[in-house]
Design a protein that fits this description.
This protein has about 260 residues and is of the alpha/beta class. About 45% of the residues lie in helices and about 15% in strands. It has one domain: NAD(P)-binding Rossmann-like Domain (Rossmann fold, 3-Layer(aba) Sandwich), CATH 3.40.50.720.
Length: about 260
């Protein structure tokens, strides 16, 4: 039987890979045989994540500290990966932040910070990986993590800079897909809804948010651990070669209503 999702020999970078969804997606790719390069700002957490991945999945995993707003730091990290492994097949741009406040109270600094991390940081990493590794190899899979809030507005947690930046990620994805398709590089976006993570669990299990899920999400609940993994595996696979420029909501149907 053909294994459509075998990633053995592929080298995958996952940014924002010290906690939460980034770690879950890295483990998903590792379960398919990929070598993992975990990138984030906290080296101690990266070391723990990589030790867990290597132990559980028996694949190489290294953690490299990187500030994705720092172009020189990104270039250094990409060079280090190429020196060690000689290739980069997959990039998941997962690192992000979120400023929550009424739009009329958002500061210039909050807006700029959101764009520097969520949008500009994703572009910088994609640019470096494409230029140095994927275009020369004529192969690549880039997955940008946007949000369902990159597709719609919301009233429950006002976050105009986040919406704007994640919406930018969606159209950046389309632009890069259009430019880099000639090099056999696919560029897609995943738009997650609310997921339980250590940072969100207490809030999402409150009576208010449970009621919100039942009223606004067709499956009437929030996302559980592992329910984002299959989208990441699919878009990372060599078999998804004719899928590019897509913004894929994984949101229990939230954006269908």
């Amino acid at each position: 039987m053909k294994n459509y999702f075998d990633l053995t020999g592929n080298v995958a970078i996952v940014t924002g890979c010290s906690t939460g969804l980034g770690v879950q997606m890295a483990k998903a790719l590792a379960s398919c045989g990929a070598t993992i390069v975990a990138v984030a700002r906290r080296q101690n957490l990266l070391d723990e994540v990589c030790a867990d991945i290597t132990k559980e999945y028996n694949v190489p995993a290294i953690g490299l500290r990187c500030d994705i707003t720092d172009t020189a730091n990104i270039e250094e990290v990409v060079d280090t990966i190429l020196e060690k492994f000689g290739r980069i097949d997959i990039l998941i741009n997962n690192a992000g932040t979120g400023a929550v406040a009424p739009a009329q109270d958002i500061t210039d600094e909050q807006f700029e910070n959101e764009f520097n991390i969520d949008l500009f940081g994703s572009f910088k990493f994609a640019r470096s990986v494409a230029k140095k590794a994927m275009i020369p190899a004529k192969y690549g899979r880039i997955i940008n993590i946007s949000s369902m809030y990159g597709l719609v507005g919301n009233k429950i947690a006002p976050a105009a800079p986040y919406h704007a930046a994640k919406g930018g990620v969606v159209n950046l994805t389309r632009a890069l897909a259009a430019e880099w398709g000639q090099y056999n590089i696919t560029v897609n976006a995943i738009c997650p809804g609310y997921f339980y993570t250590p940072l969100t669990e207490e809030t999402l299990r409150s009576d208010f948010f449970v009621a919100h899920a039942k009223a606004n999400i067709p499956v009437e609940r929030y996302g559980n651990e592992g329910e984002l993994d299959t989208a990441a595996i699919f878009l990372s696979s060599p078999a998804s070669s004719y899928v590019t420029g897509v913004a894929l909501p994984v949101d229990g149907g939230y954006t269908a209503m």
